[in-house]
Amino acid sequence: MSKRVFIIVLDSCGIGEMPDACEFGDRDCNTLKRISKSKFFTCENTVKMGLGNIDGCGYLPVNNNPAAAVARLCERSRGKDTTTGHWEIAGIVSQKPMPTYPDGFPPEIISEFSKQTGRGVLCNKPYSGTQVIKDYGKRHIETGDLIVYTSADSVFQIAAHEETVPLEELYDCCKKARKILCGKNAVGRVIARPFITKDGEFQRTANRHDFSLEPPEQTLLDAIKNDGKYVYAIGKIHDIFAGRGISEFVFTHSNEDGMEKTLEALNKSFNGLCFTNLVDFDMLYGHRQDIDGYARAFSAFDKWLGEFILKMKKDDILVITADHGCDPGDDSTDHSREYVPLIIYGDNIKPVNLGTLPTFADISATVAEYLDVEFNTVGTSRLKNILSR
Q: Which candidate, 373, 341, 337, places its Cα nearest to that of 354?
C-alpha cells in the first residue's frame, strides 16, 4: 500500500509570540491574529479543520466538530529563520543560533568576496530588500558593484540588476560566497536577489535563488529517500535542504504556482513525501508590512485548500504548518519568534486537539512513523494519538 504525506509550510504564518520572544528582539507579535483583523481575511476551510481550536487562536471561530487534528508547536531551536524552522520540521533542533551581522560583514569576508567575484561591493549592512535597490540600484548599474546586505536573519544577500549582472553570473557569485561563508561565518543562507527596471522603478524578480548550508545531521527527507521512498520538493524546499534527501524538485514563482504544483502532485503515483513551501506570505507581505496583502494570500490558500482536500486519496495525509512568524503589523520588518500552527488531515485522522507541543520535530517523527521509516529525532511521534485505525 502506498502512503503519501503532503507537508505545506505557510512561510512565516506564526500564531503568537513565544515566551522567549524578547530574547530575539520581538514583542507584541502574532502574525495570524494581525491579518485576521483585515477585511480581506477569510478562513472558512482552515476553521473547518480546527484552526480556531488551537491554543491561543481564540480570536477565530471555534469548531465543535473539526475535521482535523490540531496543535500549537513551540520552536525548540535557537532561531527564528527559514532554515532553522524547516530543519526542525524535518527533525533537526539547532542548539546554537546561526551567525547574524547587525553591523555588516567583516572586512575580510567582503574583501575575499570581491576578489573572487571581480566586482566591488555596495551597502554591506542590514537593509530592507526593496529599499536597498532604491538606494543603491543606480550606483550599482553605474559601477557594476554588487549590492550586499543582510537582515536580522542569518543571510548574505546579493542584489543585482539582471541587465548589469546576468543571472548565471549572480548565481555563481552566490556559490562563491557560500564557500567563503564557513566556520564561524557559516550563515544559514546566501540569497540571490535579482531585480529589473520596470516603469522607471527598480523591481525584484521571481528569479531569487537560495544557497543554504547543508543540514548537519540526517533529516526526515534523508530517511525517507534512503528507505527507497520518494521525496518531492516544491518551492524553495530544495534550496533549504541544499538538495539533500530529495528525489525530484520543482521551483515556483508565487504562492499560486506552488499551490498549483502541489495540486498536480496529487496525480503523481508515489510512496513518500511531497514537501511544499509557500514563500509569498513571508517575502511579499510579512517583510513588507503588508497586512491586507498577507490576509488576501491566506484567504487564497484557504479557498484552494477546499479543492485540494476533495482530491486527496484515502491514505493521504495533509500537514499544514509554518516555520516562524513575520508579523506584518509589528514594529519590525524581520521575522518574529512565534508558535506555529499544526493541522493534520486525512480520512484516517481523528479530529483531536493535541494542545501545545514542545518542538516542530514532532512533525518529522509522526510522518516517519506513518511512512514506516526509521528515523531518530528529538521529536515525538503523535501518530497513535491521531490515527483512527
A: 341
